[in-house]
Amino acid sequence: MLVQYLPFLVLFIVAVAFAGGAMVLSRLLGPKRPSATKLEPYESGMVPIGGTRGRFPIRFYLVALLFILFDIEIIFLYPWAVIFLEAGAARVFLFFEILVFLGVITVGYVYIWRKGALDWE
Amino acid sequence: MRIPVDPSDWLILIPEFILLGTAIAILMIDAFAKAASDRSSPWISLAGTAGAIVAAVFLWGNPLSGFGGMIVNDDFGVLVSTAILTGTALAVLISVDYVRREELPAGEYYALILLSTIGMLLMVSSANLIMIFLSLEVLSIALYVLTGFARMRPRSQEAGMKYFLLGSFSAAILVYGVALIYGATGTVDLQSIADELISPGVLGNPVLLAGAGLVLVGLGFKVAAVPFQMWTPDVYEGAPSTVAAFMSIGSKAAAFAALVRVLIFAMGGLRPEWLAAVWVIAALTMTVGNLVAIAQDNIKRMLAYSSIAHAGYILVAVAAANRLGLQSIPFYLIAYAFMNLGAWAVVTAVTRKGEEAVGLSDYSGLFWSHPVLAGSMGLFMFALAGIPPTAGFTAKIYVFMAAVAADMIGLLIIAIVTTIISAYFYLRVTVIMFMERPAEPPVVTVPTPLAVAIAVAAAGTIWLFLFPGVTQSFTDTVARLL
Amino acid sequence: MIAELVIFIILGTVAVATGVAVILSKNPVHAVLFLVINFFSVAMFYLVLSAQFVAFLQILVYAGAIMVLFLFVVMLLNLTGAIESVQDKLPAQKWVGLALGIALLLEAGVVTAAGVFRQVPAAPPPSPNFGTSAPVGVKLFFDYLLPFEVTSVLLLIAIVGSIVLARRRTY
Questions:
Q1: Fewer CB in a 10 Å sphere around the end CB: N or C, chain C?
Q2: Looking at residue A75, which CATH number applies to its domain?
Q3: Segment A94-121, tens digit of pLDDT
Q4: What is this model's ipTM?
Q5: Which of C121, C147, C157 sits opposite B131 (nearest CB)?
Q6: Is B4 inside any structural domain?
Q7: Residue C56 in domain
Q8: Closest Cβ opposite residue C141 in set A60, A66, A97
């Protein structure tokens, strides 16, 4: 059974080897003439100001949190979609089952929408 | 593919559906008409809870099992559900003015209370370890949010954080226990586990014992049994008083129902093995809860330790695992719902905005300015101490009788001694209220819904003492399950 | 069998090493990135155990969504300077924790060596498509219908709770 995943393993190894090889090779073969300007991080061609670890606004956090919750909702749909076509007579049952599930979560969606949590301002 | 649902399966869930519909209605009103929601949501939730109580009582005497044995409706479950719903209804009543005073978002508050109650009811009727875990999460996550609900108060946020971290950890321990039980028996269905236990190979399996132990730890955390009680005082102190009142009944009752189902119904055959553990936990819980309560100057922390101690008495009944024990657990929980919520209602009345005036000294001379309020508080303190004429006395007598019937004299002695010790700190509150005369009278407001809640709680506390038979006949049918 | 053992040893080493690296990293961003590798190796464990659907959930939800959230939190708080200044109020707990951890490890070793887990009845060999999304779906939407629906209530609570606790002002 695990053998089925052998192509994935090969692909993974090739990907890692390609990315890693490119980095190693360019380091070995490429000419290096560093100067202070060249070593600066690139920031749209401007002279960089301040550290890279600036503080993020808290809104990102709320967005990420809501993303996870709806991500989990979507994941339940995945096996549902896979079995739905083969379900035969049980399809009606499956349909209403997922409708109840989505209905409860849609209440949450309408709630966050009306509360303005989706507005960026 | 076989559709695994009968129409009758949904019957068992009518109380839960009523609560879910009410919670959704509150959320939607809050989303579309904020002003209307602030006014109406307590009354809508009260109506929903009342409907759920009616539905639960309607299910009385109909042994049902649904969703492939995932959930059951039996008389034990109905009684514990009644205790929980009583707690919810009273908690909603004492919240009406509290939520307004503390400027908490009303719609979310009542919606989360109801959603948490759904988790509690589901946990009571769960007959499957997966369902027990899932409903535990439903009730707990709502409670974590409610604990940190007063966002302007750092204490509340801190309590929410602590409760969340420790609660998640205990839930993880519970799941690990479920996994081990599944590994040993090959099933998560409580009835099938009970059937599996007949074979001697399974009975002595250390993996099963380890699983049972971990489940005991996970549920012990929820009922606040020593040594898993560390979170209780901080959470009860930091959480809004009304939330502390709500969870002191609901999550305790739900977790006890699950504990009874797992330990007695499913693993009754393992009693010789788990008895020692439950015995020690019960003894520790009664002793530590009551002794540490003596040292508290903050009424919320004192009630937290009192709630720990009461978990110990109920654990005595669990350890007894006999007919009387099974009868006394629902009775104890219903009595506790009345007397404990009554006490919390008075605390809510005495505290001022921002959870001030929670020291015991704030109660000095309360009787001389508010005789009825102080009188009710005295009644609830008598009840919690187990002094007649209150339901607390009857409940303790039942537990003691169960201990005698199970030949657990050692535990009985500890229970009696700690009850006597507990009288000290309960009566101290009464003494402070009646004996001392304050320089200036305390500022206390008793709005009508709060007064109603206190009256109902007081009436229930005395009524259950006068007519224990009302629940006695109920609990008889419970014991037949054994 | 040998192949599985080799895979297990490699994955186990990676999982434990990155797990230790997560708690030892001074830089929180590095800790989060080590956690990503850790989640990936756990996903591989699931794959070896024929829990294929769960393996991809692990990558989608944990290595994907939850790691993004972790990075946001790290950047929101930006604790670069604050971490060193945190005072350990209970210095003894580090050593007690270490001792208890070692005791737990020893206990687990002794229990395993004593053959306790061999008493667990062996599971029948899984069918070829065991653990893929179709059989998981059949289990979930038929046998575990009620837990599935209760999950929606759980998600609703989480949505309401995150808005209540994370919003900046009253909406």
A1: N
A2: 1.20.58.1610
A3: 999 999 999 999 999 999 999 888 887 6
A4: 0.92
A5: C147
A6: no
A7: yes
A8: A97
Residue C171: pLDDT band (50, 70, 90) is very low
Residue B365: per-residue pLDDT: 82
- Sign for the pseudo-dihedral over CA of B97, B102, B107, B111: negative
* Partner-chain contact A72 C156, CB within 8 Å: no
Total number of residues shown for chain B = 482
pTM here? 0.92
Chains with 3 or more CB pairs closer than 8 angstroms to A?
Answer: B, C
Q: Is residue C157 part of a domain?
A: yes
How many whole angstroms from its chain centre is CA B47? 21
- For residue B329, give the 3-state DSSP assignment: helix
The structure tokens 């305390």 sit at B442
* Residue range(s) defining the domain that contains residue C55: 1-81
Question: Is A120 inside a domain boundary?
Answer: no
Average pLDDT over residues B396-419: 92
Tokens 């390609």 sit at which residue?
A: A18
Gap from C37 CA to chain B (nearest CA, Å): 22
Q: Which residue of A has its CA nearest to C81?
A: A53
DSSP A86: G
- The answer to the question of residue A56 being in a domain is yes
Question: pLDDT at residue B308 above 80?
Answer: yes
Q: Same domain, yes or no, for C1 and C71? A: yes
CA distance B432 to B299: 12
* pLDDT tens-digit readout, C75-118: 777 666 555 556 667 788 888 989 999 999 998 888 888 877 77
Q: Which of B3, B13, B109, B112 to mutate to test the interface with A (most CBs of A within 10 A)?
A: B3
Chains touching chain C through at least 3 C-beta pairs below 8 angstroms are: A, B
Query: Which of B2, B143, B207, B208 to probe by mutation at the C interface, max C CB count within 10 Å?
Result: B207
Rounded-to-integer distance, Cα B102 and Cα B112, Å: 17
Task: Using CB atoms, pick whichever of C117, C145, C157 lies closest to residue B141.
Answer: C157
pLDDT in tens, B201-251: 777 788 888 899 999 999 999 999 989 999 999 999 999 999 999 999 999
- Asked if B78 and B57 touch (Cβ cutoff 8 Å), the reply is yes
Chain C CB contacts of A64 under 8 Å are 65, 68-69, 72
Q: What region does B370 belong to: left with phi over 0, alpha with psi -120 to 50, or beta? A: beta
Q: How near does any CA of chain C get to the CA of B404, in Å?
A: 37
Please give, rounded to a whole number of angstroms, the shortest distance from the CA of B11 to a CA of chain C: 13
Express each pLDDT in A59-73 by its tens digit: 778 888 888 999 999
How many angstroms separate the CA atoms of B4 and B10, rounded? 12
Our CA-based measurement puts residue C125 at a distance from the nearest CA of chain B, in whole angstroms, of 14
